Amino acid sequence: MSLKITRSERRGSFEEFRRTLHPHEAWAEASRCLGCYDAPCRASCPAGVDVPGFIRRIRTGDVLGAGLLIRKANLFGGTCARVCPAEVLCEKGCRDRGMAWPIAIAALQRFACDATIQAAARVLPPAGTRRGRVAVVGAGPAGLAAAVELARLGVRAVVYEEKERPGGMLAAIPPYRLPRRVWEEEVRLASSSVELCLGRAVALEDLDGLLAEHDAVILAAGMGEPQGLEIPGTELEGVWQALPLLVQVQQGARPRFSGRVAVVGGGNVAIDAACTVLRLGAEEAVVVYRRQKADMPAWPSEVAEAEEEGVQFAWRQAPVRILGEGGRVVGLEVQETRPGEPDASGRCRPVAVPGTERVLPVQAVVLAVGQRRQRVPAGLTWDGDVRTSHPRVFVAGDLASGGATVVQAVGEGKRAAQAVWQLLG
Amino acid sequence: MAVDLSVDFAGVKFVNPFVVAASPSSDRLELVGRSFEAGWAGSVLKTTSVEKEPVDLVFPIMAGVEVEEKRLGGLFNIDLISERHIDEIEKDIRILKKEFPDRVVIGSIMASSREDWVELVRRLEDAGADIIECSMSCPQGEGGSIPVADPVLTEKVTRWIKEAARRAPVCVKLTPNVTDIVAVARAAQAGGADALCAIDTVKALAGVDLETEEPLPSVGGKSTWGGLSGPAIKPIALGCVAELAQNVPLPIAGVGGITTWADAAEFILLGATTLQLCTAVMKYGFGIIEELCEGLAFYLERKGLSTVAQLRGRALSRLVPHEELSRTYKAVSSIDHSMCQKDGLCVVACRDGAYGAITLGPDRLPLVDEEKCRGCGLCTAVCPVPGCIKLRPVAGGNGRKGRL
How far, CA to CA in Å, does A217 sit from each of A153, A214, B66? Predict the structure, then answer.
């Protein structure tokens, strides 16, 4: 059974492309769950959602209990149900245990969270006042999860966000995947139990001021800065940065595209941008990626969805320059690559093959070649998890991991809060 | 709104209505302690008897009973009472009452003579048991004889026990394997019982292995009659509890097939005060107490109720003898085509088991002929999709043709 609406319905539409389960479908799916004792689905959820617990509650007709159980572990339950790469997390755990068809955990989580959003505030702790004062930098999923967890532990947390709105990268997920009402409601919920200072930029390079006023600092400032692409022609009209484009679209803007559009990059943002420009009127969208398909950082399921929607892929093609006429984009010159020696990520470094240059005629180029983090104080390092080389500084979210999932950000936020709690004794 | 799940049962306070029934799950100190830590309000320790009473187990002791695709529709057992010495059980009760003063420890006893019953009551009561549950109802062992099959014997034995008990309320556990459970319950009341527990397992056979032709569970090639528990017996237990609640003014510990908070709510609506679980605990572990309490609390809240007592027995007035049911009420089958799986199960069931009112229409969607439909309910029962077929009340008599 596919929950996706048909391809033709998806064309040009920013309506959610997967529907929610009907109650009888949720009941039937929940009935399939074996309720494993040491549930592999739960163990593989970065936020630690009690998956068999919420599925049993759906099965027994306690949908409210299911929704609250999810949100107790992850306030962004409805968001994650839509954007989690479940096939490599909870549902992988289920399949690895030997279920031929893993339980549709994400669909069940969405069912439970959507049905109980009105009651979700019940899982919020009162604002933490009992002890300490902790600065959280960044009001994305990691920062908000950290602040709510601190409140739960009774610690006072102040969240500093440079933008005028909380939510972080959630604002850059296309609405057909994550409708605005879903993430905004969950962000509003999380924000309501923490002290939020919007429009307050914090210079990460100098944490001394923050450390003087707070017992600890959790850096969850994300990777909001788009990476540039050092090729000629990026100043032309018709060249877009993927992130600002996606943010605009989430906010309701619908810039028009036409003809053929090249999207440069291989991550989930590139996939989202390609599917978005098709909805914005482009006749063709081509994802241009330097390495081979298997090296793409985008989730395989999202790549498959994009292919289903008609997105084309040009693998092993390095952009050389953007060509213009009268200041407007008319083409993207690319050069073939071959896999070279493995780099630090274990993937083969793309090596340009001389003499293979060619021009793709395109009307626009969207750059989605990754994001970078703000500079942090010299000498501050971390590896793996939430602790850093400074005993009172912690990291969470994309800033910590270099860019991962919402659910991982939530998990890191919670762990950072718990680490602070230990520090405060 | 805050919901209070605590209940009063024969003068004993339970922090919530959920109790672990006398079973392997209540046969060791460590298990009972863990159940209390998990949140269970009480535990009926596995039935004990006097030293001279032999407990001669065989293994295997259990067999699952499949109900179509459900692997544990029922659980069958030929278990006996606890193998542990009464001295150890006394010691356990003392430790449990000290460590968990707000939890209810129920001693379950079984004997075959007046002296033994009296000795057991005294010893467990002295050890600190809050309630004495009398197991006169187990369908296995003892040559199959059970005191509660006989009202006269029930009254006599209950009186012995009640006379021996100085403090703890006495609860008599009833068997469904009788013609008139109310008569037995009244006898227990006449004998002085403070409460009833219904029902014990249902006498049964688990099945037969078709290859070896051995009844199950096979104990080296042979088997015997035993007791069935689990979801399969819930309707039997509900029937018994409701009948007792309507006719005997004693608090009832409901037991038999309770697995979810919804099952528990049904027992309470039909008059149960506490709820005992065994099969569900043996399958899912003590941890299910969390979802039981939470689910029941959310249900009470949804109903605008703040205590379990407010829910108790609310469905009893809607349970009347057959002749008092309306002869003018009529409903017809109403199928939600958006949920239909186009399996045609309702069509064949109605054709061969009811009134031939459902036919397969265009695109395999079933259509109801409301003239022919008597609203019997068979289609709602066979449809694989809950909520797809409902009975919709209509005006104008049920079309009865029966002899009057």
Answer: 16, 7, 57
